[in-house]
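Continuing from the previous page of notes. For each protein in this section, the sequence appears first, followed by its C-alpha cells. Read the first protein now.
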Amino acid sequence: MTSPTGSNPTRQPARRVNGLTTRGGFTLVELTIVMFVLATIMAVVVPYFVHYYHQARVDAAARELGTATQLARLHAITRQKTVWLEFDLDRQMYWLSRSSPDEALAEDALIAAFELPGTVRLAAVQTGDRPPRDAGQVATRFFPNGTCEEFWAMLRGTRSPRTITVWLDPVTARPAWID
C-alpha cells in the first residue's frame, strides 16, 4: 500500500554507511548459509519419508484386502449364496465373484475386482489345509451362514522390507493383520 505521497510506508528507508546508500536485507553469504542448512535437512528427511511412504502402501493394501473379505462375507450373508474370493498371483490381483473358479466368470457374477499397487506384491496365499502358493490362482469361499474357509495372504513391499500377513478367521470371517 502506498501513502498519498507515493512512498511505501512498510519499506525501510535508505541509510548511508561510509558514504554508500544501503537498504536493509540479507547478504548473499547469509542466503547461501540458509540454503545449505535447508539442503542438509532435506537430505536427511527425504529418505525417511520415502521409506515410510512405501510401508504405508503395504499397510493400505492389507487394509483393502481386509475390507474385500468383509464385502465378500456381507454378500454371502445377504444373498444367501456362496461368494468366492479369487487370487491371481501372476497378475497380482484378486476379485470377488458369485461363480465358482471352475466356471467361466460371467459379467454379472463379478462383485468387485482389486489390483495391487506396483509397490506391493502378493507373495503367497494359503487356503484351508492346502500348501501355500506363490504362483497361479487360488480361491477361497465365504458361506451364507457368515463363515468362510480359513486363509492367509502375505503382502510384501517391493521397495521396502515391510511384510504383512492377512489371516481370516474361519468362524467369524474377520481379518487379522500380522506383521
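Done with the first. The second protein uses the same format. Note its length before scrolling.
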Amino acid sequence: MLRLFFISLFIAFSISSFAQKDWPYWTSYEGNFKVQVPSDLSEKIQTITTDIGDLEYHRFFHEAKEEDQHNFIYMVNYVDYPEGSLHSDSTELVRTFFEATKEEAINNVNGELLYADNRKLFDYPGQIWRIDYNEGEATLKTKVFVVKNRFYLIQVASSKHRKMDKKIHQFLESFTLLNSL
C-alpha cells in the first residue's frame, strides 16, 4: 500500500513538472486589456495618416528568447478609429473590415489562409484565423475584435513546429478587456 502511495506521488509530481506554467498577466490600462505573456511587453506607437485622419497604432510585443525559439513574437495591437468610421454595432462594416484585414495579412506574408472563424469577446464581434507562410515553415495565429470604435489584433508568429502550441493558445485565450469602454 505504501509503495502504491509513493508511485502515485511520483506520477503526480512528474506530471505537474511538465505541465504548462501560468504566465503572469500583463496589463495596459490605456489599452483597456490584460493578457498572459512570458514576460513584459514592449510598446511602440506609430501615427499613420489615412483618409479618415491620423490614427495612432499601439503595438505591444514580446520577442521570444532562445528557450522559446519556435514562437517568434507575441503581439497585441490596438487603434481607435474616429467616430462614425468603425463601430462594433455596424455589423456589415465590421465583417467587411475583418475580411480586408485578413486579406491584407495574407498578402503581407504571401501566405495561405488555413482557417477562419467568428469569435466574440463578451458581446463584441471578432474573428480568429491562421495563416501559414514562408512556404509552410511559419504560421500566424490571429484574433481580432472591434470594441465600440477600437480595433484589437492579438497575434502570435511561430514556426510550423508550434501550430498547436499550448503557449499560443494560452496567450490568445487569456486576452480580455478590463472594462467595456
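What the second structure shows: Residues 91-109 form the longest helix (19 residues). Residues 22-177 form a domain with the Protein Transport Mog1p; Chain A fold (CATH 3.40.1000.10). We return to this in next week's lecture.
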